[in-house]
Specification:
This protein is 36% helix and 20% strand. By secondary structure, the chain is an alpha/beta fold. Strands 6-7-8-3-9-10 form a 6-stranded mixed beta sheet, with helices on both faces. A 4-stranded antiparallel beta sheet has the order 2-1-4-5, with helices on one face. Helix 7 links the parallel strand 7 and strand 8. Bound molecules: adenosine-5'-diphosphate and magnesium ion (MG).
Length: 283
């Protein structure tokens, strides 16, 4: 169904419970092949936008506005064809208690061996896999190898590369990782999103500065949108969010003499796995 992958949100209005509006009259156009970042405080409605795009919920006609892909209302296509066109990398990737190969092929079960390896290389996880005892046949999960948070996200990226969707949705894809691992994964994400229409929901603004469009959501509305430099110059909502995040980093660096302090306070309080945190010891 999807040809170029242009997305148009037109006056999208949505409530989960008829009591409180989560999105009100939200309009946003994302040209094909470009990246749009959604930022804003927790509860602003960012993930809801992703859920609507994936049709976990349908907008009411006509009051709820519309979401169109290549000019076609997504309510007029089947859920399965819509979902085939969208690759999602969530915050926590679910792995099956099976081999690493099975877990990767979840992206596209009929992929060939060569395609599988190419995808793993694209996500920079091929070499790690080759170092596992049974390579691609290594069992992961409860009864097998335990992958680090960073490796799990690389599996999700490889799956998405295999799926080769026109649209990509990253919902806090690197938020549960420490900044060092996040940085390492950024290149694979950038490579995966190249040429695809991408919606990035992100907590750390440093990960979205290259997006063609950054959209600040506040109370279910678009408070501001533009490029990183443009929004900084505007000195509004985004600029103050940016400064707050910079301060967190600076404080951590200077007061404790260690970059890790800044990283730790910037992290969301998620189950930090000890093997994901790189601790630098200052001598
Ligand atoms: N399934 C749900 N039922 C009712 N309310 C929900 C549901 N999911 C999210 N909400 C509410 O909708 C608002 C937006 O949530 P969400 O889109 O997840 O925000 P964000 O991703 O920006 O943190 C929040 O106030 C949240 O409590
Ligand atoms: Mg969210």
């Amino acid at each position: 169904m999807v040809k170029t992958g242009a997305i148009d949100f037109d006056k999208v209005t949505f409530t989960y419970d008829d009591k409180r509006m989560v999105l009100t009259d939200l309009s946003l156009s994302i040209p094909a092949g470009t990246t749009c970042a959604l930022v804003g405080t927790t509860g602003a409605g960012k993930s809801t936008i992703g859920r609507l795009l994936f049709r976990f919920y349908d907008l009411e006609r006509p009051a709820g506005g519309s979401i169109k892909i290549d000019g076609v209302d997504i309510r007029d296509v089947t859920q399965s064809s819509l979902r085939r066109a969208i690759g999602v990398v969530p915050q926590d990737t679910i792995l099956f208690n099976d081999t690493i190969k099975y877990n990767l092929l979840y992206g596209r079960p009929d992929a060939t061996e060569d395609e599988l390896i190419a995808a793993a290389k694209g996500a920079s996880i091929h070499e790690s896999i080759m170092s596992f005892p049974d390579k691609y046949e290594t069992k992961v999960g409860e009864r097998g190898l335990r992958l680090s948070g960073g490796e799990k996200q690389r599996v999700a990226i490889a799956r998405t590369i295999l799926k080769s969707p026109k649209l990509v949705l990253l919902d806090e894809a690197t938020s549960a990782l420490d900044t060092h691992t996040e940085h390492q994964i950024q290149d694979s994400l950038d490579e995966m999103c190249k040429g695809r229409t991408t919606v990035i929901i992100a907590h750390r603004l440093s990960t979205v500065i290259n997006a063609e469009q950054i959209c600040v959501l506040k109370d279910g509305k678009v408070a501001e949108k533009g490029g990183h430099v443009e929004l900084l110059e505007k000195d509004g909502e985004y600029a103050s969010m940016w400064r707050r995040q910079q301060e967190v980093r600076d404080d951590g660096g200077s007061s404790k003499g260690s970059p890790v302090a800044g990283v730790a306070s910037e992290r969301q309080p998620l189950k930090a796995e000890p093997d994901q945190v790189t601790v630098k010891v200052e001598r």
